[in-house]
Amino acid sequence: MSRTIMAFDYGTKSIGSAIGQEVTGTASPLKAFKAKDGIPNWDEIQTQINEWKPDLVVVGLPTDLHGKALETITPRAKKFAKRLHGRFGVTVEMHDERLSTTEARSELFEMGGYKALSKGNVDCQSAVVILESWFEHQWQ
C-alpha cells in the first residue's frame, strides 16, 4: 500500500508545501501559504489537507549545520506541527531540513534561472526537498 505524504517547509512569512507518494519516493510542489508572524490562514491549509487526504504530514525541522535547534524558529516549527495534528487529526513527523533551502534554490535555478527563484517557489521546492529526503531516510 502506498501512502500519500504531505510536507511543509515552515517559515514565519511563508510556509511551502509539497505532496508525494511513498511508492515512488518523489514529491511535487503544491503552494506557499502566506503567514503572519508564523501563523497561516488555517482554512487554506484545511482545504489542501481535505483535497489530498494525506496519510502522513512531514514538517521540516530547522536546525543549524550541526543538527542543533535554532533558538527562535525550531520551537515555532514544532508548534506548527503540533497544531496540524491538533486541528486536523493528521499524523505528523518532523524531519531534519538542513540545507533544504540551498538545495531547493539550486534545483530551481537549474530548471528556470533567476526567474524561478521567487519566494513561494523556493519555499515549495524546499518542501519537496524535505519530503524526498524523508523518503530516502525511510529506505536506509
UniProtKB/TrEMBL annotation:
InterPro entries: RNaseH-like_sf, YqgF, YqgF/RNaseH-like_dom, YqgF/RNaseH-like_dom_sf. Keywords: Cytoplasm, Hydrolase, Nuclease, Ribosome biogenesis. Residues 3-104 form the YqgF/RNase H-like domain. One of its GO terms (molecular function) is hydrolase activity. Its main location: cytoplasm. Gene3D superfamilies: YqgF/RNase H-like domain. Pfam families: RuvX. Its EC number is 3.1.-.-. It is found in: Cytoplasm. Belongs to the YqgF HJR family. HAMAP family: Nuclease_YqgF. Could be a nuclease involved in processing of the 5'-end of pre-16S rRNA. This is Putative pre-16S rRNA nuclease. The gene is yqgF.
